[in-house]
Design goal:
single chain, 2 helices, three-stranded parallel β-sheet, alpha/beta
Amino acid sequence: MKENPFDQGVGWAGEPWSQQEMDVTDELVEQAAQESDVAIIMIGRTAGEDRDNTADRGSFLLTDIEHTMIERVTKRFDKTVVVLNVGNIIDMKWAKEPSAILYAW
């Protein structure tokens, strides 16, 4: 939380579409794989009034960190679930990588 604090933004509907995520390293993924045989990745987006989705990373598109996280985790785990906590449409070109996707909002 110290390195990636929640950004509340400023004013009505001022928070960003997505929050800065921590980088999931190969070492962290390997450590998690020693503890579990299923990985769950959560990706969230802000939704609400007075907010239009844009064709930018962190809105409609995944961020580079999110792409890298999915790639690293699916490479190491045979079973990977991505939970999309989004209230809008989102690009799904990456959807062939995980074992399952849950669209939860």
